[in-house]
Amino acid sequence: MTQIWRPDIPPSPGPLYARLTDALERDIAAGILPAGGRLPPQRDLAHTLGLSVGTVTKAYAEAERRGLLLAHVGRGSFIRGTSPDIAIATSFDSVASASEAKATGPQGTGIDLRCNIPPRVGLSRALERAVADLAASGQLEPAVQYIQASGLRSVREAGAAWLARRYGLACDPADLIQCNGGQHAITLVLSSLCRPGDTVLCESATFYGARTAAEHMGLTLRGVAMDEEGLIPSALERAALETRARVLFTVPTLQNPTSRTMSLSRRQDIARVARQHDLTLFEDDAYYLYADPADRPPPLAAIAPERTVYLASISKGVCPGFRLAFVTLPPNVARERIMRGIRALGYCPPALGGMIFARWVADGTADAVADAVQAEAAARLAMARQILGPAMDSPGAARSPHVWVPLSPLAAQRTLNHALRAGVDLTPPEACCVSRDAESGLRICLGAPDDRPTLERALHIVRDAIHEPAISEARGII
């Protein structure tokens, strides 16, 4: 029998779907929702509560992940209960258990395809050697002290050498600013260039971290339409005229989430529009290392250096744990404003990760690690192409840590729910959307699983979720 349920969702920080899931968990614990009861269909509950169907769908999926529900297409969602001796007698229990066992590791945790990190290439021994060498040479002292706000000069010199060697971008070490990872850099730059209430232009589907930073600072993101090469220049021009925005945040190489890459001519057109409308370009080049050096276009910072703030993250191509990124500034951005931001947001960057990186740049370890990451990324992308086939867009480079599966909003949410039930975590489809006409689909991150067999299992689950009959119908396949 379907349970009648009208939860109390008190106002509080956090996503609405998470608060709805919390209310569900509270009512189960209080006995308001008994084990074995069937919850209302998602569309019915959405209508009752005045919420979007997507919010309720995501809450039900999160409740499944927490072990509160069991769901079966065509039958509904059932309360699992909190007591270990309570079992729900449904015909799909064994099927769900088998799917979860196939998808998860020995600890029973889901396979993560949400976190966009480089594949693991065995860094522990190299890290141990670097720390031992720093200790033996008496160079560890800065790691236990406050350092200058812009970072250690030795680290900035290594950053300049790295950008010249791997990015083809020449810069003076004195002009580099060391940041505590790319997310810190995004928050730092946006808070220094903008004020609450300002509009920042970006791709219609953008990096979730930039969206989080903008929301935290009270900024409005205005999505700009894209095509297969990324930002459309004419759409950018219209948005600049309509909003009088002063900043464009863009990921021109392997755009996150769509994995599209701007050609040289497209970058030149974007730079032209920026000059005409006096836009400061904030270029997040986190994935430049993954592009083929033989044919990758230069960064926007090389095309329009007079107006581009450039961000290069070491986390995405070498080691996430370093929490290290570098920012370069154009002449029209006051460096002191950035320095004040650093002191306000963290006082100074941590030293140890940067010191190890500097040592690795000097002895060649950084190049070896980056090359190993690229080789593994190429192998994982080939696997994704083989398993996902035409459901996946071809990324804008021969190697990519993430791929894009275009789907309607409804089909994307259904795919996510089916994958989640089988033990695979995907990024929610609305996480990256900025505007109503945003690119719709799912980002699949290939680097997070520990090894290729785990990734292979996860990709098969995603493929099956995409082609499940109800989803295929929503996509117009059948």
TrEMBL record:
SMART domains named in the record: HTH_GNTR
A family per Pfam: GntR
Family in the record: In the C-terminal section; belongs to the class-I pyridoxal-phosphate-dependent aminotransferase family.
Domain HTH gntR-type: 14-82
Annotated InterPro entries: Aminotransferase_I/II_large, HTH_trans_reg/aminotransferase, PyrdxlP-dep_Trfase, PyrdxlP-dep_Trfase_major, PyrdxlP-dep_Trfase_small, Tscrpt_reg_HTH_GntR, WH-like_DNA-bd_sf, WH_DNA-bd_sf
Domain of life: Bacteria
Entry protein name: PLP-dependent aminotransferase family protein
Keywords from the named record: Aminotransferase, DNA-binding, Pyridoxal phosphate, Transcription, Transcription regulation, Transferase
GO molecular-function terms, A-Z: DNA binding; DNA-binding transcription factor activity; pyridoxal phosphate binding; transaminase activity
PANTHER family documented for this protein: HTH-TYPE TRANSCRIPTIONAL REGULATORY PROTEIN GABR
